[in-house]
């Protein structure tokens, strides 16, 4: 699966792009350092991860805005997962902490809008934990399938 580079990290891309994904449609934002490293370790070990996840690489999870997560859910994405460096290991000091706070705020907002906030997941990971990431993605997909009755 091709990972989108940061320059296509735009709302218009997600809203207008026909994502050729099997249901449930999962959008994943992965930080350039640990998240992307974990994906690389999966592919280097010739392992698989679910194909119904569209991954977008961002330089830092701290750049992911609440609006992007909300718009994704309102435009046909079934679940959003944000994969960041472990707390204390962000290459940009505290970007993952900022992201975590945004994710918690958007979870409260979507719940008020009648959207199950379990459709949004925040996950920290190390670059070397590709096998763990593959399991996390699979578990998240199964949880979304259950939530949405797929």
Strand elements, count: 4
Main sheet record: 4 strands, parallel
Shape: globular
Q: Compute the average pLDDT.
A: 88
What would you say this structure looks like, in words?
With 150 residues, the chain is an alpha/beta fold. It has a domain at 32-45 and 63-150. The protein has helices at 11-16, 34-44, 66-74, 95-112, 130-148; strands at 26-31, 53-58, 79-84, 120-124. A four-stranded parallel beta sheet has the order 2-1-3-4, sandwiched between helices. The radius of gyration is 14 Å and the shape is globular. The model is unreliable at 3-9 (pLDDT under 50).
Describe the structure concisely.
With 150 residues, the chain is of the alpha/beta class. Helix content is 42%, strand content 15%. The chain has a domain of 102 residues.
Main features:
alpha/beta; 150 residues; disordered N terminus; four-stranded parallel sheet; 42% helix
């Amino acid at each position: 699966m091709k990972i989108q580079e940061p320059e296509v990290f735009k709302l218009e891309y997600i809203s207008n792009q026909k994502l050729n994904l099997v249901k449930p449609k999962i959008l994943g934002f992965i930080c350039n350092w640990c998240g992307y490293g974990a994906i690389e370790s999966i592919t280097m070990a010739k392992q698989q991860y679910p194909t119904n996840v569209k991954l977008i690489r961002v330089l830092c999870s701290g750049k992911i805005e609440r609006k992007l997560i909300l718009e994704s859910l309102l435009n046909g994405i079934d679940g959003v997962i944000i994969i960041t460096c472990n707390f204390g290991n962000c290459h940009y000091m505290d970007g993952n902490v900022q992201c975590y706070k945004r994710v918690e705020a958007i979870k409260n907002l979507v719940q008020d809008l009648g959207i199950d906030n379990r459709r949004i997941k925040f996950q920290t990971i190390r670059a070397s934990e590709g096998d763990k990431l593959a399991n996390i993605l699979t578990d998240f997909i199964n949880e979304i399938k259950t939530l949405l009755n797929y």
